[in-house]
């Protein structure tokens, strides 16, 4: 039996509060000079079905060619040029031409997803400005949190990019020291996922245990009966070879190159804390942005929670419950996946089919 009830507790503790206070998500976007950071109060009479929720993707969503459909929109080329200047690499060329192995590397992948996601906001601004004006909440998966917070006004584009760069460089160093990856795992009520993880840990050679406190663990709750397990390659290979013994339905390697969202990522957390110490204090988000770590809206606690999220479990399923749980008679907002891929749409469909009926993604 999958013992996840304790880990699901943050969602169910918070969901009634967010549902009861849904009308407090009454903010609207007013285009500022930088296109992201100025908001005004939304008229309270605006119906929920006229509002929008933005979801920003994380690593694994990247693909060679992303950004091609955004270049014609005002300000997009300038965003890539600014990023290339800061990063000292041609980010747009990497997005458009790859190769895939280069784009998978943290140092390129995380900034590419960040910039492409915010470039997608520019497309929405041009084609559907009302959708941005009526955006009432946002969330980002993993590195997508930084894009979501930038959109919500906590960071400037450059500040967010600096954080992404620090995060990516620190994670890349860890990946070079501890080769690993992530598995998407589908379970059933009969699955023994925790037993499988413990067996994988015990099966690893003893010398690997000196590399990290824990080299195999749950890294994310994606959707009902869908988990992400992160760890060293040897541990993941054990799960791939023995998952049926533990009644797991299926396992699939994700297109990432490190054991993310485990205690192995503590150096990345510390690097982000040092970076925050050299920056101005982040602004309070102008719309609710739900945190991966505690499934609560960020307030004036952006710095510590965003840093902790680098090494902590992503409670994505719980975030979706909190955003979309409501009485049967309540309508749903439009949900927009803002960035490359449609992976967050897949998780939304698994969590709430009614909400998914109003899902759309931005072609990048």
From TrEMBL:
GO MF annotations in UniProt: transferase activity
BP-aspect Gene Ontology terms: fatty acid biosynthetic process
Transmembrane stretches, start-end: none
Malonyl-CoA:ACP transacylase (MAT) domain span: 55-355
Protein name: PKS_AT domain-containing protein
Gene source species: Hymenolepis diminuta (Rat tapeworm)
């Amino acid at each position: 039996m999958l013992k996840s009830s304790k880990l699901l507790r943050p969602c169910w503790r918070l969901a009634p509060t967010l549902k009861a206070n849904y009308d407090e998500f009454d903010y609207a976007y007013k285009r500022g000079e930088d296109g992201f950071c100025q908001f005004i109060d939304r008229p309270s009479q605006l119906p929920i079905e006229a509002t929008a929720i933005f979801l920003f993707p994380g690593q694994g969503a990247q693909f060679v060619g992303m950004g091609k459909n955004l270049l014609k929109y005002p300000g997009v080329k300038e965003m890539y040029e600014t990023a290339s200047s800061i990063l000292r690499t041609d980010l747009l060329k990497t997005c458009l031409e790859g190769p895939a192995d280069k784009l998978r590397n943290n140092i390129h992948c995380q900034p590419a997803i960040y910039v492409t996601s915010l470039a997608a906001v520019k497309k929405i601004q041009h084609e559907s400005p009302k959708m941005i004006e009526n955006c009432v909440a946002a969330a980002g998966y993993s590195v997508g949190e930084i894009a979501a917070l930038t959109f919500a006004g906590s960071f400037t584009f450059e500040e967010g990019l600096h954080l992404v760069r620090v995060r990516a460089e620190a994670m890349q160093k860890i990946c070079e020291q501890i080769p690993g990856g992530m598995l998407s795992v589908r379970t059933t009520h009969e699955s023994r996922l925790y037993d499988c993880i413990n067996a994988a840990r015990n099966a690893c050679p003893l010398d690997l245990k000196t590399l990290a406190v824990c080299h195999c663990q749950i890294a994310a709750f994606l959707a009902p009966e869908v988990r992400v397990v992160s760890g060293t390659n040897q541990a993941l290979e054990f799960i791939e070879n023995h998952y049926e013994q533990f009644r797991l339905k299926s396992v699939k390697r994700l297109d990432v190159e490190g054991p993310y969202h485990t205690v192995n990522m503590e150096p990345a957390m510390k690097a982000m804390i040092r970076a925050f110490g050299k920056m101005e204090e982040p602004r309070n988000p102008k719309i609710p942005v739900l945190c991966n770590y505690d499934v609560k809206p960020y307030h004036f606690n952006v710095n510590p929670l965003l840093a902790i999220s680098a090494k902590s479990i992503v409670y994505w399923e719980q975030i979706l419950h909190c955003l979309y749980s409501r009485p049967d008679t309540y309508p749903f907002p439009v949900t927009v996946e803002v960035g490359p891929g449609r992976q967050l749409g897949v998780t939304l469909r698994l969590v709430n089919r009614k909400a998914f009926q109003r899902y759309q993604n931005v072609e990048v």
